[in-house]
Design brief:
Blueprint (H helix, E strand, L loop, with lengths): L2 H13 L3 H10 L4 E2 H8 L3 H13 L3 E6 L2 E6 L1 H20 E2 L4 E2 L2
Antiparallel strand pairs: 1-3, 2-3, 4-5
Helix pairs in contact: 2-4, 3-4
Length: 106
């Protein structure tokens, strides 16, 4: 594994460490949304939502489309897929381990 991959996964982990940000991602449901729409749907303050969306965007979990003075966001499916691949890789490695001493199966 190269260092840039590890850095990306770590950034995603930090971004997902807050339950509010996880809820924001779950709210997209495959849609492209503005901060205004998300604020109404999630019943929260615009400044709070903007802060969390910014972190998700910087971590690469969201894409942004600028239309005039409005910013629209959508979940970056490639980033979510990469996270799923990482999770699968960890699970596969964990299944090969046995016992508390973590020796590989023969």
């Amino acid at each position: 594994m190269d260092d840039s991959y590890c850095q990306r996964i770590a950034a995603v982990g930090r971004a997902l460490s807050d339950p509010c940000r996880v809820a924001i991602l779950m709210n997209f449901k495959g849609r492209t949304l503005s901060i205004s729409t998300m604020t109404e749907e999630m019943d929260t303050y615009q400044s709070n939502l903007s802060y969390h969306v910014s972190i998700l965007y910087k971590a690469g979990l969201l894409q942004r489309v600028d239309m005039g003075r409005w910013h629209y966001y959508a979940v970056d499916q490639e980033a979510i897929s990469e996270l799923g691949d990482f999770s699968s890789t960890c699970c596969k490695k964990a299944k090969r381990r046995k016992g508390p001493d973590n020796h590989d199966d023969p």
